[in-house]
Design goal:
Layout: H1 2-59, H2 62-81, H3 84-100, E1 110-116, E2 120-122, E3 125-135, E4 144-150, E5 153-159, E6 167-176, E7 180-184, E8 188-192, E9 199-203, E10 208-213, E11 233-239, E12 244-250, H4 262-268, E13 272-280, E14 283-288, H5 298-317, E15 321-327, E16 341-344, H6 349-357, H7 368-378, E17 384-390, H8 395-402, E18 410-416, E19 423-427, E20 430-435, H9 438-450
Parallel strand pairs: 2-10, 14-15, 14-17, 17-18, 18-20
Antiparallel strand pairs: 1-3, 3-6, 4-5, 4-8, 7-10, 8-9, 11-13, 12-13, 15-16, 19-20
Helix pairs in contact: 2-3, 5-6, 7-8
Length: 451
């Protein structure tokens, strides 16, 4: 009879231990859930406090913080020590803060639409845009101001009081005096009190990119002097099969029988085959120097960009293969071991001018000699190369850059110097054109085509 009782005792003890284990598990679980909930509550509270602080800091100006400090200090000291003057000053500061609050209302009551007449212009002109502001709020929108960022500048537009559904149209003039890529927008409304105590800003996502193209000049299609026939330009490379006939020579094993000239063979009694000059499609390479030290002034660089654009446009319109290359940016620590170039898009004249709008000279690119060397490796079928640079390029540097091309490639160096007289000279195998004005390029290229 003792065995069953022992068995019951054992089961009782086992069930009690399991109950304690479940209790401990439930307690630990509830503690963990409380910790997780507390952490989430803390994160939400912290996020709300940070958002509130950002809203206050973006709304209260320096003058507002000064008034807030004056109100707190004046009223506190006036009440604590019975100083009437401090209490009056603090009350006035508090009143100004309260009166400036209504000016913040309806900050999002505007619908702003900004449009530009053109998205591409030539340097030295301007673009007219239209700013259309509509009151989409339920009530009357108080007078305000809209700021339109234009590059690094800012255009302010005053918006008068607008009733619901009414709009205000303002013409905006965007200056485009210098070549570059200008970002216009996004428009930003700034609403605040006349004293500048509080302000609230609202931004719209309407932005425009304005390409300010370099000034170019029209070049005649024959100015470059490399258009010879419809099939291509005959080079000095002799090949066995092409279009431009060169001479006859004796047959050697391996020559194609189709090239045998049977009339000459009958006359001489020896198999004779034709030789040809290789005809290639005219590929033009324009290497534009971008090094900071490769130009004496900013005017030289702008003249160089305009010259490169003028030559490239003429080549594209003539149906030539045009490659405009510039030095690629390389960090200072890798300048001695890394060389790179960047090719500008030349699909159309507009894409080329868009690319030229954004080029700037910098100290992070290699010299012109590196650009020409890599350009020759990339485009081995070049027939003519233009090297566009500034006045700091010496004859030795120009010759070194031109040596990257083989003797059958015509090399023309365009040296841009607004203070120099236009000139045309030979420097070994290199033709050097010195231009002081953009129109000099047209005259000197026409002169070079005639010589």
């Amino acid at each position: 009879m003792s065995l069953p009782s022992e068995s019951r005792l054992t089961r009782t003890v086992g069930s009690t231990g399991t109950a304690h284990a479940r209790t401990r598990y439930a307690t630990a679980r509830s503690t963990t859930e409380l910790a997780v909930r507390g952490d989430r509550a803390w994160r939400r509270a912290r996020t709300a406090v940070v958002a509130a602080w950002r809203g206050v800091s973006d709304t209260v100006t320096a003058a507002g913080w000064l008034l807030l400090t004056a109100a707190a200090a004046g009223i506190g000291l006036g009440v604590a020590f019975g100083w009437v003057e401090f209490a009056v000053a603090g009350s006035i500061a508090a009143a100004l803060l309260v009166l400036s609050v209504p000016f913040l209302f309806s900050a999002r009551a505007y619908d702003v639409d900004l449009s530009l007449g053109h998205d591409r212009v030539v340097a030295g002109t301007h673009v007219e845009g239209t700013l259309r502001v509509t009151n989409i709020g339920r009530g009357i929108a108080l007078p305000g101001r809209i700021d339109v960022p234009v590059g690094e500048g800012l255009v302010d537009v005053y918006v008068p009081l607008l009733r619901h559904g009414h709009e205000h149209v303002q013409q905006v003039v965007v200056p485009a005096e210098r070549r570059g890529v200008i970002t216009v927008g996004p428009a930003r409304t700034v609403r605040g009190d006349p004293l500048g105590i509080l302000k609230r800003e609202a931004t719209w996502d309407d932005t425009h990119t304005l390409y300010v193209h370099p000034v170019t000049t029209a070049l005649h299609s024959t100015s470059t002097g490399f258009i010879r026939d419809l099939e291509g330009q005959s080079s000095r490379t002799i090949v066995d099969a092409d279009i431009s006939f060169h001479a006859l020579r004796e047959y050697v094993p391996g020559d194609s029988q189709r090239q045998i000239h049977w009339k000459s063979t009958a006359k001489t009694g020896t198999l004779m085959v034709r030789q040809y000059e290789e005809s290639r499609r005219s590929r033009m390479i324009i290497a534009l120097a971008l090094g900071e030290g490769e130009y004496g002034t900013d005017d030289e660089f702008e003249l160089a960009v305009s010259a490169a654009g003028s030559i490239g446009i003429r080549g594209i319109r003539d149906g030539r293969d045009v490659d405009v290359v510039v030095g690629g940016e390389v960090p200072e620590f890798a300048r001695r071991t890394v060389r790179t170039i960047r090719e500008l898009a030349t699909v159309t004249t507009r894409t080329l001018l868009d690319e030229l709008s954004g080029v700037e000279r910098t100290t992070l690119v290699g010299p012109l000699a590196d650009v020409t060397s890599l350009a020759r490796e990339t485009h081995s079928d070049a027939s003519i190369a233009f090297l566009v640079c500034g006045s700091t390029q010496t004859p030795r540097l120009l010759q070194g850059a031109a040596l990257a091309f083989p003797p059958d490639v015509a090399v023309v160096a365009v040296v841009c110097n607004p203070e120099a007289e236009p000139g045309f000279r030979r420097l070994g195998t290199v033709t050097v054109l010195t231009i002081g004005l953009l129109d000099d390029l047209r005259h000197l290229l026409a002169r070079g085509a005639q010589t």
